Amino acid sequence: xxxxxxxxxxxxxxxxxxxxxxxxxxxxxxxxxxxxxxxxxxxxxxxxxxxxxxxxxxxxxxxxxxxxxxxxxxxxxxxxxxxxxxxxxxxxxxxxxxxxxxxxxxxxxxxxxxxxxxxxxxxxxxxxxxxxxxxxxxxxxxxxxxxxxxxxxxxxxxxxxxxxxxxxxxxxxxxxxxxxxxxxxxxxxxxxxxxxxxxxxxxxxxxxxxxxxxxxxxxxxxxxxxxxxxxxxxxxxxxxxxxxxxxxxxxxxxxxxxxxxxxxxxxxxxxxxxxxxxxxxxxxxxxxxxxxxxxxxxxxxxxxxxxxxxxxxxxxxxxxxxxxxxxxxxxxxxxxxxxxxxxxxxxxxxxxxxxxxxxxxxxxxxxxxxxxxxxxxxxxxxxxxxxxxxxxxxxxxxxxxxxxxxxxxxxxxxxxxxxxxxxxxxxxxxxxxxxxxxxxxxxxxxxxxxxxxxxxxxxxxxxxxxxxxxxxxxxxxxxxxxxxxxxxxxxxxxxxxxxxxxxxxxxxxxxxxxx
Length: 515
Ligand SMILES: NC(=O)C1=CN([C@@H]2O[C@H](COP(=O)(O)OP(=O)(O)OC[C@H]3O[C@@H](n4cnc5c(N)ncnc54)[C@H](OP(=O)(O)O)[C@@H]3O)[C@@H](O)[C@H]2O)[C@@H](O)CC1
Ligand SMILES: [K+]
What we know:
Elements: E1 2-5, H1 7-21, H2 25-43, E2 50-54, H3 58-72, E3 77-81, H4 90-102, E4 105-108, E5 117-121, H5 133-144, E6 148-152, E7 174-178, E8 181-182, H6 183-186, H7 190-194, E9 196-200, H8 206-212, E10 216-218, H9 221-227, E11 242-246, H10 254-265, E12 270-276, H11 280-286, E13 291-295, H12 304-320, E14 323-326, H13 334-343, E15 350-353, H14 356-362, E16 368-370, E17 376-378, E18 384-386, H15 390-397, H16 401-406, H17 408-416, E19 423-426, E20 432-434, E21 439-441, H18 454-467, H19 472-494, H20 502-512
Parallel strand pairs: 1-8, 2-3, 2-5, 3-4, 5-6, 6-7, 7-9, 10-21, 11-12, 11-14, 12-13, 14-15, 15-18, 18-19
Antiparallel strand pairs: 1-10, 16-17, 19-20, 20-21
The structure holds ligand NPW and potassium ion (K).
């Protein structure tokens, strides 16, 4: 597991390390600078002419120190100072003093001349507002140069918490970030500016990081493999749970197939599909391993007798199941709403609500608390997992799409508002999973996933894990991570991002899951 910090957490780790543990700020800075210089030496030619563009905070101090280390190693180096030196931080003043005593070339403002390497040390986690004036000019100039760009801690101009661009930002080839990865260079659009990210250990004590306990984390492939539920030596199909997939409508059959097949592929013992009668033969043909139960989609479900029948039939299946998926391809007609209400009466079995299940949910005021500004908080119990993409999220919460896009972690948390309620899987290029407490940001996967049906596969995968006894949030995190790994495996094996279809993920699961 890798912690990802926002600005507040990163500053708190700095503060505690310096003030409570007693490691001097200059020691941390020297180590940060060593990491930057090391990254330059590993990636740039030995004769490279280096320019360090430095602001007046400690990020600038890192830049001056790294420039000095490269200078000691024989690189021709220039330091360019942007901003008023009178406002420089104590550490920055000390670094400048050292560099001047050594005779390193320092200029005020942007230099003329050409450089092979530029260190971007204008702003790090101290960036506090939009970039304007000479700072914006410097960033634009840096981006125009034909040089390798190394960003110190964070590309200047990127909000290190949200990934937003504060007017303009450096487009780096490498970012050397200190101690922990930063949320702003994991999330879009910030990650597009960071290039290759190196997380450098500069000596923040583990104890401090654990005490600050960053809220956000990500997983590696190894972490995911370790989280997999165990396979028992003496087992049978009853040992790994039963998934009920309530999905499909007269017009759509593929979604419930993909979801059901994915649940099986994740290792659950039995899958039953509850679907419109029109889908019965299709599912039996595509997935003979699944049990199938159907309802008559042509009946009038405003009639209480028909409502009673479908509810009764569904109740039996809910009783049978270990966990339930509702929504893929289910449509928004009357039966979908009746079935969703029935499923949500279940408080002990895990329930995944996906796709049209979410659109139906969005129309039911009883599951939400309205705020004065018209937005809504989702109020469902902790056995529920919701898997909206951003558009579905706007329907659920009434948050505006650009706001969710810009602040995906904050908006996910705001929609739940308190810990230990339902799990939210907010799907995007960086999917966020949270139950209101910890936040997982998925960094695995690729844009091959941007195709119809991949969401149905995900809902089935999560259910497959839930059926094997995983807690909702853990199952959601692991499902998202494995879903990304399957897409990466496809690209690795087939060499392209264009051709993948959702069904290919099912085949890739066979490749990536533990043998
Ligand atoms: N603490 C430590 O010991 C360690 C810190 N480390 C390093 O320090 C970095 C954090 O340093 P930091 O806190 O000094 O902030 P930093 O990113 O340099 O920016 C602050 C400066 O920018 C200015 N400013 C802000 N926004 C602006 C804008 N839009 N436009 C114009 N000016 C703007 C702001 O000015 P002011 O807001 O006061 O006007 C101030 O001058 C961190 O990312 C890491 O690299 C490492 O060495 C490890 C040890
Ligand atoms: K920077």
